[in-house]
């Protein structure tokens, strides 16, 4: 029973960071070094040929920590991912850097780090990104401002409000420009900042909110939607007694991409998830993910669209944890979007996807 409760609590970490059962490589004289990994054989089944097929990958991470003084700790984390669907002769193994940051922690005064990390909006957005395969994609997008993983992030975090209020955490984040006009060679974001706060109320119940605002790059602003990109989110979750429930609501402005790299002037987003961990290792999961674009205000094809659903699916899935290192999972993304002129012109898929996978993690 205790082992399964531990699995339920650690599942989001195992799936996202692959570090729940990290192997300790070194621990001496205040210096620690852990190695973690996740090897996943994953196959998608869908009428959408862009999604159907092999989706296997491997992730490796390394986390270091050093005790500088009694109150000061230095730390760093790096994680990479290699895809397994490319041929050996293809010359492209899909190598990506998911995380790469280093920082320093000053006791109850908090921590500061810099590098490639999670954006501040993901402090709340991550609460529903716990599905067996899908989820966390109504407004959370990689390398899109501070909605999910992104680069050039400087983050200050404080736990338990300087040690004075148990469960009350807050964070402030600054993101430097990632612009094709500089060394980054891509139009991802201008300078921006954000903040978040979460409060553990006890008995498994937590609430949270986050906000971020950024300049848009010169090339981004050529769509005449505006010079700023803003996002706000709020959420609530319950995580106790083998039951996990979470709900988030978010709005973004001139921030989110949809279809073939169109930008929504405004989105309204809802994500709901419910999971239960049985003693035998089975963890069923049910979720709804929804995003509606408002005031889109630009032509797609020969027509101007203003209010359209961008994401709308019900997710039914399950994990089966054989133990803390090995999991089998199935996830069925039931796409609720109807095929239309808008989805076809914008390049939005309306097909269902089934994911079947086995995962080994350490």
Distance between the termini: 21 Å
Shape by Cα distribution = globular
Name of the top-level CATH class: Mainly Beta
Biggest β-sheet: count, sense, barrel?
16 strands, antiparallel, barrel
**CATH superfamily grouping:** Porin
Report the CATH architecture: Beta Barrel
Unreliable runs:
1-19
Tell me the structural class.
mainly beta
- Mean pLDDT metric: 91
SSE run: HEEEEEEEHEHEEEEEEEEEEEEEHE
Number of helices: 4
Briefly, what is this?
The chain has 362 residues and is mainly beta.
Description:
The chain is 8% helix and 54% strand. It has helices at 2-16, 122-125, 160-163, 341-346, and strands spanning 23-28, 31-45, 53-54, 57-67, 72-83, 96-106, 111-118, 149-158, 168-175, 192-202, 205-215, 228-240, 243-253, 257-258, 262-263, 266-276, 282-294, 298-300, 303-305, 308-321, 326-335, 353-361. One of its GO terms (cellular component) is cell outer membrane. Belongs to the Gram-negative porin family.
Write the layout of secondary structure elements.
Blueprint (H helix, E strand, L loop, with lengths): L1 H15 L6 E6 L2 E15 L7 E2 L2 E11 L4 E12 L12 E11 L4 E8 L3 H4 L23 E10 L1 H4 L4 E8 L16 E11 L2 E11 L12 E13 L2 E11 L3 E2 L3 E2 L2 E11 L5 E13 L3 E3 L2 E3 L2 E14 L4 E10 L5 H6 L6 E9 L1
Antiparallel strand pairs: 1-2, 2-3, 2-4, 2-22, 4-5, 5-6, 6-7, 7-8, 8-9, 9-10, 10-11, 11-12, 12-13, 13-16, 14-15, 16-17, 17-20, 18-19, 20-21, 21-22
Family: Belongs to the Gram-negative porin family.
Subcellular location: Cell outer membrane
GO biological process, one term: monoatomic ion transmembrane transport
């Amino acid at each position: 029973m205790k082992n399964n409760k531990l699995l339920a609590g650690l599942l989001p970490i195992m799936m996202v960071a692959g570090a729940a059962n990290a192997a300790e490589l070194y621990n001496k004289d205040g210096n620690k070094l852990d190695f973690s990994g996740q090897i996943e054989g994953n196959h998608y089944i869908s009428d959408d040929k862009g999604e159907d097929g092999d989706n296997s990958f491997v992730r490796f991470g390394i986390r270091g920590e050093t005790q500088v003084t009694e109150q000061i700790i230095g730390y760093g984390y790096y994680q990479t991912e290699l895809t397994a669907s490319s041929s050996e002769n293809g010359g492209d193994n899909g190598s990506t850097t998911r995380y790469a940051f280093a920082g320093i922690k000053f006791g109850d005064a908090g921590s500061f780090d810099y590098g490639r990390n999670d954006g501040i909006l993901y402090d709340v957005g991550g609460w529903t990104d716990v599905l067996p395969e899908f989820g966390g994609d109504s407004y959370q997008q990689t390398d899109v401002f501070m909605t999910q993983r992104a680069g050039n992030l400087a983050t200050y975090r404080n736990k338990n409000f300087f040690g004075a209020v148990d469960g009350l955490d807050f964070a402030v984040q600054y993101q430097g420009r990632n612009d094709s006009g500089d060394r980054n060679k891509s139009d991802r974001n201008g300078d921006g900042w954000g903040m978040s706060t979460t409060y553990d109320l006890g008995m498994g119940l937590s609430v949270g909110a986050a906000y971020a605002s950024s300049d848009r790059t010169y090339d981004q602003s050529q769509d005449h939607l505006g010079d700023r990109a803003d996002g706000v989110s709020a959420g609530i979750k319950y995580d106790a007694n083998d039951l996990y429930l979470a709900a988030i609501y978010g709005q973004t402005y001139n921030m989110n991409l949809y279809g073939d790299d169109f930008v929504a002037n405004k989105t309204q987003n809802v994500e709901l998830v419910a999971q239960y961990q049985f003693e035998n290792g089975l963890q069923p999961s049910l979720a709804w993910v929804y995003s509606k674009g408002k005031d889109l205000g630009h032509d797609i094809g020969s027509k101007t669209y203003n209010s359209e659903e961008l994401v709308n699916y019900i997710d039914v899935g399950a994990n089966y944890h054989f133990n803390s290192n090995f999991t089998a999972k199935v996830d069925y993304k039931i796409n609720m979007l109807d095929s239309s002129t808008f989805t076809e012109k914008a390049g939005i898929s309306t097909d269902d996807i089934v994911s079947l996978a086995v995962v080994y993690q350490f």
